[in-house]
Write a structure and sequence with these properties.
By secondary structure, the protein is mostly helical. Helix content is about 30%, strand content about 5%. The protein has a two-stranded antiparallel ribbon with strand order 1-4.
């Protein structure tokens, strides 16, 4: 997601010297910048929602992550102020970022019992946490409970029901969109790019601008300087706009970009993809099966009915 002025975001341009060299840091060194505060302004161990000191298990996790980083990186950790510093990276950004995902140390109104309206409270995405939550009183937690507590992740905000008092946690008041005018405009922009009608109100630039103006984001003409650049920009705009709307996956498949955007290459295996980006543990077994995935196979039953139909190459029947 871009800066609010439409320029590309760069971690090394965040207004704090701790981010210098971020793009070449190891994952362990980067993790230091995302750690939660463990002390308050006075230097005392920070208090939780119920007034108890921060759990020692959480403090130990912070110490372990600092120990895994280099000495130079661990020295950047601020027991008080680490949270405020990382929040700088998410300020003055395209507002769709914070609308689509829960950014670090942001809050969301949740509930420890979804069926009782009186149980709604604001919880915050902090890291690390201990188990599902970081407070001993499970009915008064103020850390967001997550399933994958061992890893830092971005969690969905868009279309997530807030508060409590729901009759069923799987159903809520938000309707699923079938089609939005933004989708029409950006498909239109894609077509205009392929026709090389790139700039101006009637070109791809103009259609993209109609979408971005809704969130007060400028559309920079430099992104439409060439057909290739405009194509990439329109695709990125669709990625930003349609999170959680059942569109992104099928876009990547029709563009044939799913492999390059979601998988990393194996070291020493030229041209071979290995695992999903950022995968750890069992997730590492999820590998790219082959480019035949971009074309759905003709069903076996249809081939049996019609001898003129042939098996789709790459698929096992």
């Amino acid at each position: 997601y871009e800066n609010a002025d439409g320029t590309s975001f760069n971690w090394e341009e965040v207004d704090d010297p701790a981010f210098a060299g971020y793009n070449t840091m190891s994952p362990a060194d980067r993790a230091v910048l995302f750690l939660r505060d463990t002390q308050d302004e006075s230097g005392a161990i920070i208090k939780q929602h119920d007034g108890a000191p921060l759990q020692t298990t959480v403090q130990d996790k912070v110490k372990a992550l600092l120990g895994a980083a280099s000495a130079g990186a661990s020295a950047k950790y601020l027991p008080y102020g680490n949270e405020a510093r990382i929040k700088k990276a998410y300020a003055s950004r395209d507002s769709r970022l914070s609308a689509n995902v829960i950014t670090p140390y942001a809050g969301i109104v949740g509930g420890y019992n979804y069926s009782s309206a009186g149980n709604a409270m604001e919880v915050f995405w902090r890291w690390p946490i201990s188990g599902g939550n970081a407070t001993p009183n499970t009915t008064q937690r103020d850390d967001m409970a997550v399933d994958n507590a061992n890893h830092f992740s971005y969690y969905h905000r868009k279309f997530v029901y807030e508060g409590a008092g729901l009759a069923d946690r799987n159903n809520g008041p938000i309707d699923e969109p079938l089609i939005r005018y933004a989708d029409v405009l950006l498909m239109w922009a894609e077509a205009l790019v392929e026709l090389n009608q790139l700039t101006g109100t009637n070109g791809a630039e103009g259609k993209v601008a109609q979408v971005r103006s809704r969130v007060n984001m400028p559309t920079l003409p430099s992104n439409f300087a060439s057909k290739e650049k405009a194509r990439d920009y329109v695709r990125d705009e669709r990625r930003r706009e349609f999170v959680n709307e059942g569109i992104n996956f099928f876009d990547e498949m029709r563009w044939r970009t799913w492999k390059e955007s979601k998988f990393k290459f194996s070291a020493g295996e030229k041209g071979q993809t290995e695992t999903v980006w950022g995968a750890t543990g069992n997730a590492g077994s999820y590998k790219w099966a082959g480019d035949q995935l971009y074309v759905w196979p003709v069903p076996q039953t249809e081939i049996e009915k019609n001898p003129n139909l042939k098996a789709t190459p790459g698929w096992n029947y």
